[in-house]
Amino acid sequence: MSLRTQAASGRRAFPGSWTLRGAPPAASARILPASWPRGWRVAAGLTAVAAGAAVIAGAFMPWVEVFAGLMQIPGVRGRNGQIMAAAGAVIAGAGLYQLVRGGQGARWLAGLAGFAAAGFSGYLLIQLARSMRVLGGDSMVIARGGPGLYVAATGSLAAFATLFFPPSSQATLRRDAQRPILAWAADRESSGIRRGLQLALGVIWLLDAALQYQPSMFTRAFPAMMLAPSATGEPAFVSGPVLMTSRLIASQVVQMNAVFATIQLALAAGLLCRATVRAALAGTIAWSLSVWWFGEGLGGIFGGTANPLTGAPGAAVLYAFAAVLVWPAGQRHAAASTAGTSVADSSVLGRWARPAWLVLWGAMAYLILHAPAGSTSLTAPGGTQATVVTIGFAAAFVFAAAGVFLPATTRPALLIAAAAALVVWVAGEDFGGILTGSATDPNTGPLLILLAAAFWPFARAAPAAAPGLPADSQPHEQAAPVPPVLKTAPAPDARSRATDTR
């Protein structure tokens, strides 16, 4: 065979060399540059960096212009502008980390920081509009709003939008050439405990929607008696958005409550259907955090009266935490389910799941120790009973918080957490008041139990059977060797016996 024939057939022309057509894929892949990441990792990282830069730029731009623009007041001159600049720095830093190292942690940090900055900038825009109505009519001032706060709000929304990008582990920018959005929204991989927890969260959302459709929710009692009290005793950044939301709902209570109930029903349906699980979980995070701030006043944790026996730190934030834990696990986290870990450990939080659990239950222990003694029916009698109840629950919360860090105490800690949550739901929260006609959600009890189930360790997989043997016939201990003198010779077969008789 000639050299030309060998090159055409893709075979080796001589030892140690390959023709162009016959080069193996691995060899050709080695000559391609791989210094720059590709796919949605780049898109999410660059978007976060640009969004953070926009937030920082907006903080340094004028927020207010007075004397017909002769004097411009930048946002960083005040505390609110400095907070926005710090949020922009966090978003940009998370974006850079996403570009360099990748991973889901940086994506979540940028998205959640963008959500917080967007909510804060929206609140500041409302306050700015009110101030302009007062100062704009003064001929000596002639104040008007500057572009800075609008630029910062736009950057915050862009950072929050990165949470809805497809997974960064995807190789190209196109998941499905025909239906990329539908492919992202679905969850076809989750099974077992993770899928069961997703369904449980969907059932809780279904109960939440049913409570929101109650007749009393379509009256002015809903904003006046259930939302506005959340602002009592809270600082301005908490009470302001709550009171604003209450007034907004009171103006169109029927329409607004119908929208709220329908959103919750849609989230429930999305979790129960595999084709929309991921989209429903993303919606759960966004909606729950919004409700936690604008409806629950951040659970009252800044007012000094929050008590875990009555629902602190708020059911809404637990919805968001649960949604993060049961988020579909990528291929990188799928192997964790066979290593004796849990759904939470194999979630997008990874090693940060247990510290988040520690913060939750540690905060509950702190809140119950600092709550007013007579704020619940369990501690209303006061005296020794109130002290015993408070110390007992605080000790249970502390053990539940710290016990998950040791393998020997993980299961007992989770059992105590679930038992404490059940007692709180029954005795402290009165089953969330779901039979009173005025409850907006089942409260924190069921969600705390669901979170405990997410941290329950998987059973370790049984050792694989030896080749050629069924799994149940695998010996547990290695058999002792048989001395050669005790071994018997194999019995002759029929052919050998026939040969001997001839």
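Second entry:
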Amino acid sequence: MSDKPLLDKVAIVTGASRGIGKGLALAYAEAGADVAISARTIPDLEQTAREIEARGRKALVLHMDSFDYPSVEAVVDRTLEHFGKLDVLINNAGGSRNVEDGWKGFLDCDYTVIDEVFRMHVISPYAAARRAAQAMIKQGTGGVIINISSALGFYPSTTVQNYSASKAALNELTKLWAVELGPHKIRVNAIGPGITRSATTEKLFANAEAERAAAQTVPLRRLGEPSDMAGMAVFLASDAAQWISGATVMISGGQRFT
């Protein structure tokens, strides 16, 4: 694989203001792509954009609310208007407006929480992928869709079952979209991160000791970093992965969840 495997490609990375999304956006810029980035927090996005431009590539900052599906579709539309094409969509935006409730078990969690979690992790990516696929088909040049899932989509935990179920659904959609879009030369894959340093994990780990304890549950004895996902995300969008579709790759430091 060349040192610029995505040279002059145009990519969208949702949820790119921080964490994994920001790491993926910067990795794509380093790989030669221009990147449209979206999130609710514009100031953080603008910092990501500056770092993309410092790597010699173009950035487009777009506001997106994952609960407002027209705004999700508008990210694709505005990217096409600005850059004239779309090669890669990374569905990364995620989380919960109420992290604590989102991590409760079945008996303690109100149905409104699972509704929110599925809107965030299933319906919003669905809206973005559908719009992107329509554009890629119209272009006639194929494309790539990458869903950022979770290792918990494979190994559910009773304490995070709403989140786990939503990511399992996203994994299944990844396979279904790969089958339907394959004839149009659109590849669809997913990445399933394990416990990765992010704004969400900062809320979950009350102190450094709790973080160290979590790291000890990982065979490689550390939490994941956004950069740990970058190589796979670049690879899956490159020509080196041109016969890979419908796969979800778990990147968890060897950890299995129970």
